[in-house]
Amino acid sequence: MQMASAAGAPQPNLLDRAQAARSAEERGEGRDREDQQSESRRPDFPSPRCGEEARRPPPTSPVSAPSVGGARGGGVRLSGGEDYAAGAGRFPIRAKGDGTSGAMATPSPAKSMGDPGITPLSPTHIQQKDTDQNAQTGASFIVVVAIDFGTTSSGYAYAFVKEPECIHTMRRWEGGDPGVSNQKTPTTILLTPDRKFHSFGYAARDFYHDLDPTESKQWLYLEKFKMKLHTTANLSIDTELHAANGKKVKALDIFAYALAFFKEQALKELSDQAGADFDNADVRWVITVPAIWKMPAKQFMREAAYKASLVCRENPEQLIIALEPEAASIYCRKLRLHQMVDLGAKTSMNGYSPTDNVGSVMTQAKEHVRRNRQSRTFLVENVIGELWSELTEGDRYVVVDCGGGTVDLTVHQIRMPEGHLKELYKASGGPYGSIGIDYEFEKLLCKIFGQDFIDQFKIKRPAAWVDLMIAFESRKRAAAPDRTNPLNINLPFSFIDYYKKFRGHSVEHALRKSNVDFVKWSSQGMLRMSPDAMNALFKPTIDHIIQHLRELFDKPEVTDIKFLFLVGGFAESPLLQRAVQDMLQGRSRIIIPHDVGLTILKGAVLFGLDPGVIKVRRSPLTYGVGVLNRFVEGKHPPEKLLVKDGTRWCTDVFDTFISADQSVALGETVKRSYTPAKPSQQVIVIHIYCSEKERVAFISDPGVRKCGTLRLDLSGTEAPAPGVRREIQTLMQFGDTEIRAMALDVSTSRSVKASIDFLSQ
Ligand SMILES: Nc1ncnc2c1ncn2[C@@H]1O[C@H](COP(=O)(O)OP(=O)(O)OP(=O)(O)O)[C@@H](O)[C@H]1O
Ligand SMILES: [Mg+2]
Question: Which ligand places an atom closest to the C-alpha of 184?
Fold first, then answer.
């Protein structure tokens, strides 16, 4: 047996133990022990709450390569007698708190596939039975409530378990803007000067708008803040946001306030419907996040949900994180022909001819939806929708969620007869949402009126800035490829007035002097933008999307795409639709569901009702830990050589849990075993590394970074009798929307608290 050290102190007998274990392994003792264990002590994993069945490895599954995290990922790994211990000397095992970390290696029968350094991943991937997750969890909740926390707009929708084909969207919000539909509410939040939650959505924006300018400086108003979770490289629980008045506020508080607001609204609506207080324990919550979000951002959302008391930390399964394009994909499976516009159809469909220009098709579709949307309840097929009658086993389609902040793509393949989905290519996309057009407009204003003026104006006249952006939003939505007449944007009087005071001359003068000749001044106090000027504002954002789509369609996994579903609010843009049509050149049919803005919300409810519908996903990144391997001359670089007690080790070896773009089934687990350095040790902490590259050899390779920690909390499990190895068997799941870990103290069959933290790097 071998161990890893605590608190970074060298462990003189670390390698001795490793060697002893190796000898044992070579003598076959390790295998015997494992075989014996798999027969007599089948791991008894913690029983998750909400009725979710513990996923147990089959009795024949091998115990495999363990590893130990050190400050630089030094680790222990014994696998078929080929991987060895680390953690001593220059690879100290990181101590947490009172110096309680470390780990061990277990002998393993995992095969080495001729590579003496790294044991292959596959033997430790355990494929679980194709269980229906919903069936496992179905009994413990009455209703699924999904929250679409958008960059620009948010909302919730729900469905009762007993009536899954009826999806109810939230009650109408008060407020709304001319020319802009209000299916969701703006993602805007207002805190009082003493930093208490005041309001959310239209209410927040309108209250802030009506504050006296001197007073408004004291209030904290935030919008478009979701993007911070995507753009912050070292996201942590302490990450801060800037309110409109420049004051800083903790991002976690803001997200928690917003979620608490949705919780209150949804429970109130459910209680009103039920005629009695609705118990939060009867709700399964779903929060949607972009599929391209990294693990820290997803975890951040979960932390905010805990803080908002949406669910409690002891009952994590009550909250499911849904990926936005996945949710859309689930909903699109259910589409009926009258619930969508087909831009690529050869014949007329739903009364709309594909030869009509895109704008008019959408206008008719919107009118159709408006007339049919008296009710907030949407009926979905309890089987797969009509569109799928055209699909056969193995057909592929792409979903492009074009939101305010991000454009997020997923490639799915359908499996008949159940209509289960398989992800064919890892989620991709980027920050190419519709707010890019707003930023271009702001840049244009800076060009005409000066950056210094715009910066000051935003702070000094916040209400007028809000008005200006509302006016722009409605004009932005009117932009279309075949438009010939200009678009007028109302400049608030306050803008004109403040500019005069600031510069000493008129806005009209500024426009004349600027070399922006496609924007003119209208005598009615408006900016008059030519269609070319508006198209120019869209261009950088649309170019990014098209470039991304082009690259995606060039991938070998992304051929023969039957449909491209365009969803999210930005999908309504005729300019974007036309650009996608031009790029695809008829290679696949473009389908735009009615109510594009609600597609994700409706799909998220369906996902909450049946999270098992997506059976296979692709890992967006390569994940693993650092371990020591036996040094192999000619294979390992000399600078990685570490000689300890006469044994030659290769340091920094990356033990891959899963590779980027590797497909992984729901329920599939990666198994590793660890042991504490000391019998009395309470916590094992192991660093997790990740990379965008599919193949990683060493944790020091370019592009590899430390991204999280696996924490095994041994408190409450007693140390084994002297001489008995303490093995903590750890199972990690990469096939879900979040990475999960479960662990078991093998000698006592007691469950060990296992968690993966991506936020404290
Ligand atoms: N016709 C249109 N042209 C351009 N943009 C549009 C149009 N209609 C809606 N949008 C934009 O779509 C966005 C809202 O879409 P949606 O609600 O899907 O985004 P979100 O969920 O807030 O963002 P994300 O999903 O990126 O977090 C807004 O930025 C809005 O300006
Ligand atoms: Mg969205």
Answer: 1
Query: Within the chain, which residues score under 50 in pLDDT?
Result: 1-139, 345-358, 367-371, 373-374
- Give the pLDDT confidence of 379-428 residue by residue, as tens digits: 776 666 666 667 778 889 999 999 999 999 999 998 877 778 999 999 99
pLDDT for 11:
29
Residue 414 is predicted with a pLDDT of 86
Are the C-beta atoms of residues 730 and 754 closer than 8 Å to each other? Answer: yes
Ligand 1 neighbour 486 (Cβ under 6 A): no
- Can you give the pLDDT at residue 515? 81
Domains of the chain (ranges; CATH) run: 109-133+619-757 (2.60.34), 136-434+522-609 (3.30.420.40), 435-521 (no CATH)
Q: Which atom of ligand 1 is nearest to the CA of 569?
A: 15
d(CA 319, CA 325): 18
Q: How far does the centroid of ligand 1 lie from the alpha carbon of residue 42, in Å?
A: 51
| Cβ of residue 578 lying under 6 Å from some atom of ligand 1 | no
Burial class (CB in 10 A: 0-12, 13-18, 19+), 604: buried
Q: For ligand 1, say whether the CB of 405 is within 6 Å of any of its atoms.
A: yes
Instruction: Say whether 139 sits in a helix, a strand or coil.
Output: helix
**Pocket mutation for ligand 1, best pick of 148, 149, 151 (most atoms within 8 Å of C-beta):** 151
**The amino acid at 737:** T
* Res 726: pLDDT: 83
Q: What share of the chain is helix, strand, coil (3-state, %, to 5)?
A: 35, 25, 40
- From ligand 1's centre to the CA of 404, what distance in Å? 4
Q: pLDDT per residue over 577-604, tens digit each?
A: 999 999 999 888 999 988 888 899 999 9
> Residue 228 C-alpha to ligand 2 middle, in angstroms?
15
- Rounded CA-CA distance 530/569 in Å is 24
636 within ligand 1 shell (Cβ under 6 A) = no
pLDDT at 172: 66
Atom of ligand 1 nearest to the CA of 478: 1
531-553 and 435-449 are packed helices; what angle lies between their axes, rounded to 10 degrees?
Answer: 140
